Amino acid sequence: MKAPQWLRFCVFSSTPVRLPLRHVRTGTVCNRRSGPSIDNHRGVLVPQTASTVERITFHGHPMVRSLHPTTIEITTEERLTEKGDCIVGVGAAKGCSQLSETLKTALRSEKAKVKIRVLVGNESFELTAEGDKGLELSHPHDIVIRRSRFVSGRTLAVGASAAAKDIPRSIVSKLKNAETVGALEIEVHGA
User: Fold this and answer.
1) The CATH number of the domain where 141 resides is what?
2) pLDDT (tens digit per residue) in 39-53
3) Is the pTM value of this prediction over 0.85?
4) Which whole-number Å values give the CA distances from 98 to 49, 106, 147, in the listed order?
5) Residue 9 bridge partners (DSSP)
6) Residue 119, φ and ψ in degrees, nearest 5
7) C-alpha to C-alpha distance for 115 and 41, rounded to whole angstroms
8) Is residue 2 part of a domain?
């Protein structure tokens, strides 16, 4: 049996790490979630960080329009008017203030990268955003994801890659039914 070809050494916490050449070509993760991974843009090893995940259920409403160009919102409130064109779900299980302390801490990290999924039936819509050290996460009813850098007690994440208007119309049409159950999945990396 031939010995693997080792490409480079890297040190994390005083422990040398060696990756075989095959890992560099494919960009796969070594040692699963706890080990280093390849950053293909720079060709170097980087530590892979654990993620924090929280899922919040909500349901649809006949007034869901999902037309807002800069935000996405879910709320614990049951009412929805035409003005709420960023709201994709009502009757949410929690608002910003009820999020776990672990998630809040992760979101307040300068390095936090946030992956958000709107899950409805067998469909999903994914976007990315960022955390911010100024996040209050204090509103008892609302969770808002923003394209802008604006922060208030309702803000979950900023710098989002998408807004309510970008959600596929097939998902929006399902959310117009009050019986439809959806979920907002929040996954934070790099905190």
Assistant:
1) 2.60.120.630
2) 444 444 445 557 899
3) no
4) 25, 15, 23
5) 18
6) -110, 125
7) 20
8) no
